[in-house]
Amino acid sequence: MTYADLQTFTAVGRIANLTVIQTEDERDCLVVTLYHRISQDAVVTIKFLNSNGLLTAYNNNNLVVGQELTVSGKVQGIRAFYMKDEELMPLKQPEFQLKLTDYAFGSRPQPKVEEGTKATTKKKAATAAA
Length: 130
What we know:
CATH 2.40.50.140
């Protein structure tokens, strides 16, 4: 009989932070922090390391903060509290630590358009449609 692997986790979220660190064995590694909305009122943070594809994409400016990312992996740990002045405090966004097994890139954030440019763009679109 086989059982489902309940530690496997897949999430779609937006990248909140990207940081390159050096591991103990002196390899470069990308620390990815992802925000995933699990309900209307609840957001969790997902953190994981990657030293190949995502690191390369980040170094080539193909991975940016705000970009959508789908990740799959095994849950390594969950953190929901921290200590502050010897008192246990809840995190605003519980944190999942993930051992990444697969990922897929999603849409990138759109560049901000200034107010004067919006009107010009709308006029060009209306002219092109006519």
